[in-house]
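Format notes (please read before filing issues)

Several people have asked whether sequences and structure tokens are stored in separate files. They are not. Every record keeps both together, in the order shown below: the sequence lines, then the token lines. Line labels are part of the format and must not be stripped during preprocessing.
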Amino acid sequence: MTEENLLEIRDLKVHFEIKSGILKRTAGVVKAVDGVDLDIRRGEILGLVGESGCGKTTVGRAILRLVEATSGSVKFKGRDIFKLSSTEMKPLRREMQLVFQDPYSSLDPRSKVGDIVGEGLRVHGVTDRKERYRRVLEALEMVGLQEPHMRRFPHEFSGGQRQRIGIARALVVKPSFIVCDEPVSALDVSIQSQVLNLLKDLQQELDLTLLFIAHDMSVVEHLCNRVAVMYLGKIVEVAEREELFGNPQHPYTQALMSAIPIADPKVKRERIILPGDPPSPLRPPPGCRFHTRCPEAIDICSQEIPQQIDLGRQHLCACHLRQPEPDAVQQPA
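Then the structure lines:
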């Protein structure tokens, strides 16, 4: 574990059994996440992108142990959290928080905002009422809300304000790492930029590390320092933001980039239309999982799983058609 990495994820797999019949026998296994390797550096915003159903959210929840992994390891500050008991995990849960996708269903409609934001403090042993009040108010003010908002219910707020409450709930316990699970996808476009700028300011001010899960590449380009691209349970490409958007190497990444709208009507971009639909994670194709839709696929793509190779400039790509730098070290798939 290097000092610059806050988390190191190795061969993470999350499989869900499908039960059927009266006896609830296993009829199949959904391989939602199937061998993910990823490093998250201290103080960075890492974007995790891919189309719906590729396993992005499952990766985020497995990191936090909100869903149990089938195998693999996640080291947080050098400790493998999969080997910790629930008692040993409790102090770490204060340091690892989650901002949910839906700002409506993620807040208890029967509780006041002050109680919602302060719940984490009660769970982690802050019993003094004045101290809880002070820290809840501090967290709300950091996201642009005020003291009178503490006495209101969630239904009295707009979607953008509710998401700010969700961010305050994550911040109140002073975490070092936050998983943001598509936090702006349910908001109006006019509100999205406000919430994104708020997250960026908070990350810099509080020296936070964020895993930002999204499917909107333009949002990721605005916010993130590095980007990991995911397809059908596997990471296919990882690079610094400027490197990835300026020099995408994996055919799937190139297709995603071609769908980003350009504000200038005079600038034309060739759109890459992928044939067919993504395969089912219940029966993923052999070899490279993208080969059934890849316009560049060759015979080996359907036979062997591509290894993650270093293309230089900390640019990793899992594709048989790409060649590593001569001095680069091959990475595990």
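For reference, the curators noted about this record: The mean pLDDT is 91. The first helix runs from residue 56 to 63.
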